[in-house]
Amino acid sequence: MTVRVLGVDPGLTRCGVGIIDLAQGRAATLVEVGVIRTPPDLALERRLLIIGEQLDAIMNEFSPSAVALERVFAQHNLRTVMGTAQVSGVVLLAAARRGLAVGLHTPSEVKAAVTGYGSADKKQVAAMVARILRLDAPPEPADAADALALALCHAWRGIPSGIGGATSTTPAQQAWRAAERSGRKSEAAPRLDT
Amino acid sequence: MTVRVLGVDPGLTRCGVGIIDLAQGRAATLVEVGVIRTPPDLALERRLLIIGEQLDAIMNEFSPSAVALERVFAQHNLRTVMGTAQVSGVVLLAAARRGLAVGLHTPSEVKAAVTGYGSADKKQVAAMVARILRLDAPPEPADAADALALALCHAWRGIPSGIGGATSTTPAQQAWRAAERSGRKSEAAPRLDT
């Protein structure tokens, strides 16, 4: 069974979207990654409409089987958090209209899943996403990399036996080891908490 | 010219909706008032879907010419504010899909418009709404009364020579809005950057 997950890093100015496929016992693969941008001088409702229409187009084209979304907290970034929450409302609605469940994950859950370290910085997350998906370079901008990290986090949490079958290691650890075996160099080596 | 305004007091558990008609030189009249409720044990995306579908049905039935929405602040009610903001995203999207502009008003702007006093309590607002719309009793629950108060606030602010002859939009604001309306067709197609 292949799970196709759409990850969304919500934002009014830049909304990251990333889609991955994960089949049991196989490595995750990149399907699509990008950013939906809206002009800051446009009326709020027009900006949300652009994001809603782009999300609909992406869901129509790629038919994800699940959606992963960053859980927004009111405590952070008071200036932008309301816009971010409004975008997340639009994402949740677009998913529900297709009968898709939405998994909400906190930034530290996503970081821990992808790098093994809940306080990893954006560069480490992007570098690890590139490794896991065997990309030539980290996805840019950071919102796009974060969207892929969300999708990976959700896919790994959702598949009971994880990639590589049932083991005592976490998917992040397995991915890390696989990446180590592949012998690739990374500019920002993520840490593993044990 | 009659303006029909849909006011929405956003909330996940109770979302107040109220529609009023206001014709130049005439008293405001009640068209519809009610509350959209969603069960707290339902998944967030399902709750937003119910609200989105109910709003669509209301807009289809009553064809408002404008939408008024409470401006949500991250500073208040930290526990519920994210859900409220997500609902407001759904309201903004529903309006934009119909080409309707949305007026955002703070609670104190609404209280001041309806009662003349920016710190009025909910009971005073409901009583004044009943008086203005010549209702036998204050609308209940408070979310329904607040939605009507929002609609009244927006109608009075938006009609150049509104009730009482006073106007709160400047000629510059009116010119700006006209320009915005005529400029919609020339909006550049949104890009999906990769």
UniProtKB/TrEMBL annotation, chains A, B:
<comment type="similarity">
    <text>Belongs to the RuvC family.</text>
</comment>
<keyword id="KW-0460">Magnesium</keyword>
<comment type="function">
    <text>The RuvA-RuvB-RuvC complex processes Holliday junction (HJ) DNA during genetic recombination and DNA repair. Endonuclease that resolves HJ intermediates. Cleaves cruciform DNA by making single-stranded nicks across the HJ at symmetrical positions within the homologous arms, yielding a 5'-phosphate and a 3'-hydroxyl group; requires a central core of homology in the junction. The consensus cleavage sequence is 5'-(A/T)TT(C/G)-3'. Cleavage occurs on the 3'-side of the TT dinucleotide at the point of strand exchange.</text>
</comment>
<dbReference type="GO" id="GO:0048476">
    <property type="term" value="C:Holliday junction resolvase complex"/>
</dbReference>
<feature type="active site">
    <location>
        <position position="9"/>
    </location>
</feature>
<feature type="binding site">
    <location>
        <position position="143"/>
    </location>
    <ligand>
        <name>Mg(2+) 1</name>
    </ligand>
</feature>
<keyword id="KW-0963">Cytoplasm</keyword>
<feature type="region of interest" description="Disordered">
    <location>
        <begin position="163"/>
        <end position="194"/>
    </location>
</feature>
<dbReference type="InterPro" id="IPR036397">
    <property type="entry name" value="RNaseH_sf"/>
</dbReference>
<dbReference type="GO" id="GO:0006310">
    <property type="term" value="P:DNA recombination"/>
</dbReference>
<keyword id="KW-0233">DNA recombination</keyword>
<feature type="binding site">
    <location>
        <position position="9"/>
    </location>
    <ligand>
        <name>Mg(2+) 1</name>
    </ligand>
</feature>
<keyword id="KW-0238">DNA-binding</keyword>
<comment type="subunit">
    <text>Homodimer which binds Holliday junction (HJ) DNA. The HJ becomes 2-fold symmetrical on binding to RuvC with unstacked arms; it has a different conformation from HJ DNA in complex with RuvA. In the full resolvosome a probable DNA-RuvA(4)-RuvB(12)-RuvC(2) complex forms which resolves the HJ.</text>
</comment>
<dbReference type="GO" id="GO:0000287">
    <property type="term" value="F:magnesium ion binding"/>
</dbReference>
<feature type="active site">
    <location>
        <position position="70"/>
    </location>
</feature>
<dbReference type="InterPro" id="IPR020563">
    <property type="entry name" value="X-over_junc_endoDNase_Mg_BS"/>
</dbReference>
<dbReference type="InterPro" id="IPR002176">
    <property type="entry name" value="X-over_junc_endoDNase_RuvC"/>
</dbReference>
<keyword id="KW-0479">Metal-binding</keyword>
<keyword id="KW-0378">Hydrolase</keyword>
<dbReference type="Pfam" id="PF02075">
    <property type="entry name" value="RuvC"/>
</dbReference>
<feature type="active site">
    <location>
        <position position="143"/>
    </location>
</feature>
<dbReference type="GO" id="GO:0006281">
    <property type="term" value="P:DNA repair"/>
</dbReference>
<dbReference type="InterPro" id="IPR012337">
    <property type="entry name" value="RNaseH-like_sf"/>
</dbReference>
<keyword id="KW-0540">Nuclease</keyword>
<dbReference type="GO" id="GO:0005737">
    <property type="term" value="C:cytoplasm"/>
</dbReference>
<dbReference type="GO" id="GO:0003677">
    <property type="term" value="F:DNA binding"/>
</dbReference>
<keyword id="KW-0255">Endonuclease</keyword>
<keyword id="KW-0227">DNA damage</keyword>
<keyword id="KW-0234">DNA repair</keyword>
<feature type="compositionally biased region" description="Basic and acidic residues">
    <location>
        <begin position="178"/>
        <end position="194"/>
    </location>
</feature>
<feature type="binding site">
    <location>
        <position position="70"/>
    </location>
    <ligand>
        <name>Mg(2+) 2</name>
    </ligand>
</feature>
<dbReference type="GO" id="GO:0008821">
    <property type="term" value="F:crossover junction DNA endonuclease activity"/>
</dbReference>
<protein>
    <recommendedName>
        <fullName>Crossover junction endodeoxyribonuclease RuvC</fullName>
        <ecNumber>3.1.21.10</ecNumber>
    </recommendedName>
</protein>
